[in-house]
Amino acid sequence: MTTDKIGVGVLGYGKVGEGYHAPMAATVEGFELVAVCDPAEARLTAAQKQYGCAVYRDYEAMLADERVGLVAIGTPPNMHCDQAIAAAQAGKHILVDKPFSMNYDEAKRMVAAATEAGVIITANQNRRWDADYLTVKKVIEEGLLGNVYDRESRWMHFTENWATYGVPEFDSRWRVKRQYGGGMVYDYASHLGDQMLRLVSSPLQSVYADLQSRIWSDEVDDHFRAELRFADKTTAILEASNNARQTLPRWYVVGDRGTLVSQPTGGCDVHVYTDEGESVLEPVQPPANVIYTNIADVLLRGGELAVKPQHILETMRLISMIFRSAQEGEVIYVADMD
Question: In angstroms, rounded to a whole number, what is the distance separating the alpha carbons of residues 250 and 154?
Fold first, then answer.
């Protein structure tokens, strides 16, 4: 690895590896795509043809490549823990796609391994920089709604693309199979949860959740709803579904001086309602390539990591609380998890 560029090895050349990590590594300043690892020969052939990088079927062989300084893990969630720990032990920095792990305990092991090895570990929480979220965050921080006490965040649609997302060389339906870590909680609570936990300054206190398996799979959830309560007595709802033929607002936020509604238009449509009337807000423009740009800033210029290990642990603790609450039918408290 050269002193002015970070050599990236992409692990898993499926939809995320091919469509996100490889292009980021090949084009964002400060990086160089040096290797791709995948068990499918056809995927390796495609990577080598497009980028001319080294290709590996064996993960340990890629970790032995001295040019690889950062491993971008784009495999299904059930593989993340062992792969991240192996990367840390090989002295590689680590970027893990969401969901970071299968559960809170795995996440703690992964972070501990990176800490012990002295390498950075972060998660691809790219939706923390979506225009709608940044706009909602700005509205709350500027006090346009007064004291906010309830927030609702939803990602609801009806499409077969979710259930058939994977590449055929692996398993096109892995997102609806339990063994790989499929389901809406893993897929969307990782985004919605990360956003909400960054939006609320008060610590999470408890979660009550329900999971449904109605249309796409009897192995994993295709609709979930979670009610969150924070230490300051404010509340939040997270809900995601692949079953919604008609949806509710993307954001619904209530304060003592106003209400915010953001419709699921595919863009950023944020309305604020106060005693003075309705305002349609200009969306905050999101920066480009934030995750990779931030990692370059950390490794090459001593910057501060945006998606910190503590953030990752909080999000994975929330996901584990959602599953546990749905299984037990009870409110789960943060104190029950640590």
Answer: 5
Residue 60's region, left for phi above 0, alpha for psi from -120 to 50, else beta, is alpha
What is the maximum span of the chain, computed from C-alpha positions, in angstroms?
64
Q: Cα–Cα distance between 291 and 295 in angstroms, integer?
A: 6
pLDDT tens-digit series, residues 297-334: 999 999 999 999 999 999 999 999 999 999 999 999 99
Spatial distance between the Cα atoms of 188 and 174, rounded to a whole number of angstroms: 15
Q: What is the pTM of this model?
A: 0.97
Give the distance from CA 181 to its chain's centroid. 14
Q: Write out the H or E segment, with its range, that includes residue 53.
A: none
- For tokens 């640590």, the residue is 338
* Tokens matching residue 103: 């559960």
Domains and CATH numbers, the chain: 6-126+289-304 (3.40.50.720), 127-285+317-336 (3.30.360.10)
Q: CB-based burial of residue 27 (10 Å sphere; 0-12 exposed, 13-18 middle, 19+ buried)?
A: exposed
E-strand spans in the chain?
Answer: 6-11, 31-37, 54-56, 70-73, 93-96, 121-123, 148-156, 204-212, 223-230, 235-241, 251-255, 258-263, 269-274, 277-280, 332-333
Q: How much is the mean pLDDT over the chain?
A: 96
